[in-house]
């Protein structure tokens, strides 16, 4: 059923082949027990050539696949891992070191696929007035770290998150735009 729906979508893809289509692997959570190789085959057959990995690094365990196996399977089908959906407690300074270490791990993993972008999700909304400025300071640090590793980090807006539907931006150090004294 899913394959038929995606095949129908593939027929409606724009004629401009400069557009590269990707799917988030969270889509497959609705089909437990699906083999990773089957997911890749369906994606290839329906014109979706990229994957945005979700639930990293748990996805490796979920599909009982190693990084090396994933690299081989993706390459064999001419597909690309383009990014990882990444989140963490950017609003909690006590967790910043651990979140930054996980971000480095995610970017290191992405390097094996020649990916250079990290999609970042902000924390859930809160009533804490310090949450937003704390998150901004942390994202400046994350943006610097991403740049040092040859990556760009981009913030994905989402309902129910500190950064909601109406805004999205690249995480690049913004020391001049947002001096630390104002955050």
Secondary structure: elements and pairs:
Blueprint: H1 2-11, E1 22-24, H2 36-46, E2 50-53, H3 58-62, H4 67-76, E3 80-87, H5 96-111, E4 117-121, H6 131-148, E5 152-156, E6 169-171
How would you characterize this protein structure?
The chain has 183 residues and is an alpha/beta fold. The chain contains 6 helices and 6 strands, in the order αβαβααβαβαββ. Strands 1-2-3-4-5-6 form a 6-stranded mixed sheet. It is globular. The C terminus is likely disordered.
Tally of individual helices: 6
Taking all Cα atoms into account, the compactness measure Rg is 18 Å
> Biggest β-sheet: count, sense, barrel?
6 strands, mixed
**Which H/E pattern describes the elements?**
HEHEHHEHEHEE
Structure summary, number of beta strands: 6
Distance between the first and last residues' Cα: 50 Å
Helix residue percentage: 25-40%
Counting structural domains, the number is: 1
Task: Examine the secondary-structure arrangement and name the CATH architecture.
Answer: Alpha-Beta Barrel
Overall pLDDT: 83
Secondary structure category: alpha/beta
Instruction: Give the overall shape, derived from the CA principal axes.
Output: globular
CATH fold-type name:
TIM Barrel
Q: Could you name the CATH homologous superfamily?
A: Divalent-metal-dependent TIM barrel enzymes
Uncertain parts = 173-183
Q: How much strand? A: 15-25%
Strand neighbour order, sheet with most strands: 1-2-3-4-5-6
């Amino acid at each position: 059923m899913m394959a038929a729906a995606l095949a129908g979508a593939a027929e409606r893809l724009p004629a401009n082949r400069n557009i590269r289509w990707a799917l988030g692997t969270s889509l497959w959570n609705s089909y437990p027990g699906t083999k990773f190789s089957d997911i890749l085959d369906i994606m290839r057959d329906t014109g979706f050539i990229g994957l945005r990995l979700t639930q990293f690094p748990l996805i490796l365990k979920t599909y009982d696949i190693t990084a090396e196996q994933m690299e081989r399977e993706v390459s064999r089908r001419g597909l690309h891992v383009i990014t990882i959906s990444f989140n963490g407690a950017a609003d909690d300074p006590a967790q910043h070191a651990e979140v930054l270490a996980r971000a480095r791990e995610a970017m290191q993993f992405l390097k094996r696929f020649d990916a250079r972008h990290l999609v970042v999700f902000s924390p859930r909304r809160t009533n804490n007035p310090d949450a937003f400025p704390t998150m901004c300071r942390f994202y400046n640090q994350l943006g610097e770290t991403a740049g040092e590793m040859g990556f760009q980090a981009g913030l994905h807006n989402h309902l129910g998150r500190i950064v909601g539907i109406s805004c999205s931006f690249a995480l690049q150090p913004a020391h001049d735009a947002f001096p630390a004294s104002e955050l």
